Amino acid sequence: MNRKLIRRSLFLASLVGFLNIASASANTDTTQVTGTVTSGNLSFTKPSDSSFKIRLNGENQIKTISSIKTIVTDFRGIDEGWQLLVKSANYMSYKSNYHLILNDTDVTNNNIVIVNQKKQSLTQEIVINTKIDVEARARAGDYRSQLDWNLQPNVDKQLVE
To answer: What are the CA-CA distances from residue 143 to residues 51, 52, 54, 87, 100 (Å)?
Structure first.
């Protein structure tokens, strides 16, 4: 019986030794994947042209003409939105004859906000309702409104002085 006990003890001791050696030789490690995501562009396509033809009749005339269209892409990766502004560089040359109205706002030689997008939209087609308001005393002739567009990010952060 002692022999059996000694054999079992030797067997168990050798098994424990083997398990210790096996666990000592196991090797584990960790790695990391790091990177940087950078901001993309905020941009727009050239807005489309529009034209009109009106026959003078002695009264003020408001006429809806073809919409001005553009596509805005916002790949900045932030959710602050953007605004599209416009002004007419040559407003003074035609203002006594007609007024250009975009999205129900008169265009002048000062920047006005035509579209104010509050949140990021990756790609968005913008359709701007366009009207011409021709004065009753307008002079017959060919006219051109030169529109200067500006796309800029919305800034909702409060400045602390």
So the answer is: 10, 10, 12, 16, 11
